[in-house]
Amino acid sequence: MDEFLRSVEATVFASGEPLSVNEIALHVGEGDVAAALAELAERYQGHGIELVERGGRWHFQTAPDLAHLLRRTREEPRRLSKAATETLAIIAYHEPVSRAEIEAIRGVQISKGTLDVLMEAGWVRTAGRREVPGRPLLYATTADFLTHFGLASRKDLPGIDDLKAAGLLDPLEETLFQMQADEESDEQLESESEED
Known about the structure:
Arc Repressor Mutant, subunit A, three-stranded antiparallel sheet, 10 helices
């Protein structure tokens, strides 16, 4: 393959968008750009990627019969809403937790869609039902949640000191967080003393 052909190939490959023959010529200098593109298109036929021309502009693309392999990698990651982020944090710190408990901690109702988004992402799962009237569903995090956030276990979640150091707690939140931590500690001590 001659140097000019390689230059045309590299220019089209490196471009983030399709290029016209004139735009390619600006990069590679003198030569028959159209003939080089035609030769490259022929060489790439039957390969995993192809050089194609659409509307007078050239670009590389995945061969149409292989496009299905890349759909998953091209999906844009969804940004979580503030409500979903708060809900995920509550589930992570308090699991297993019911919807009513999540709402009590957040102070507002959560939409069904919020939990659906977290379950679709694979970060939250149902974890049985609470043995109280109405038998509400319980929610817990999954192994995918731990993997995605780089945690070995829930014990690796940041504690109150870490959150304070990062400036993520205002004084009211800090007080509420500490009260919840104290309640959990008291419950754990009670269950340990009952076992003795």
